[in-house]
Predict the 3D structure of the following.
Amino acid sequence: MRKRLFRVLIFIVLTVLAVITLSPVGFLVINSFKSQSEIVASPIALPTEWNSGYVLTAAEQINFFGSLAITFIITLLSVVLIVLASSLAGWMIARAKNRLASVMLYMFTAAMLIPFQAVMYPLLSLFEGVGLKNIPGLIIMYGGFGLSLSVFLYHGFVKSIPASIEEAALIDGAGMLKTFFSVVFPLMKSTTATVVILNALWIWNDYLLPFLVIGNAPARTLTLELYFAKMTSGQFGNPWELIFPAVFVSIIPIIIVFLILQKHIVRGISDGAVKG
């Protein structure tokens, strides 16, 4: 009886927490199909008519498909760069039993504590000096900022892989890179999914770095399009009938990716936390 009451209590608590967590998304959805007057009059009420015209208009004003393509390319290339560099680095650091490897691990770990604002202006000045204040430079910046946590996760997981597996591949004639990509990397599936999700969510939703690097360039990310659409349409107040549906359509792709890969998050983080 006590166990049943405890389970019911846990269920009720989790349900309340789920409702609280999802309420902003619900608020966004219902206001994406309402007019400006309806939103101002009653922002929490359901729309009298579910008018998809506001969503289509917002998608057109933020150049949805063009900015979606730019955001997708930046996110994809940045995540690929992070995964390749951090997985190799985490593997080599875990396997190298020397002081240099320990120092490198400490450096990657310490880098997670350095706020972006501390290196923002020197970094931008450096990239502008070498002609990389553009989309390729933005991808390189994301790759650098995403390394620390990713290397930490990969390093923790590699320490749980028996080294004998790699030694057997080397004895069979496989080189270092072939051993890594054929033997080690496939075992990192859950950790890689975690690295992909964490970095993709951050890069997709990031506003500050694209604003500082590419600014008002013709090719802009979704977050920049949202900002400039608001700036051009909201001189006399907040255009809620544009803001809500624009934010709604901009988060749909990353929600889909998250739902597809979410089952790997907990397993990947726990795998990356393994201690040797």
Residues 64-95 form the longest helix (32 residues).
